[in-house]
Amino acid sequence: MQNIRIEPPSSDGIGTDTDGTRPGPARGPAPLLAGAAAAVAAAGALLALIHSGSPLRAPCTLFFLLAAPAGAIAAALRGPDPLGRAVTALAGAIAVDLLAAQCLLAAHRWSAGGGVVAVTGVSLLVLLVALLRGRGSGPARHD
Hints:
This protein is an all-alpha fold. The protein contains four helices and no strands.
């Protein structure tokens, strides 16, 4: 096993970038892409809920219907490597979408807005369970 030594930042500025920040995992295009994906997904949900006639409604709503449950399922998964987690989350998202569509069709209540609401509800439920499980998974404390 290898120990990793964490050193505090030095006062002379060594170990920092030119703008004075330390390099780390939050740097680069990943946070920007995640924010853009969240914005597109939110726009898709909003366009579907207000029944907009925009040509962007269908692709943005489809992106939301895949991204919302996939993100919740990926947050709930702990074991697989990143590629396995992404594939499993995408397959789970498709399954959630198909289940929501089947339930709405069986109830004769199909609409794009209804599908968005159903998928949002299932995604929030999965995310809530993942957050509660993550909070309680730490070492047991006996005070």
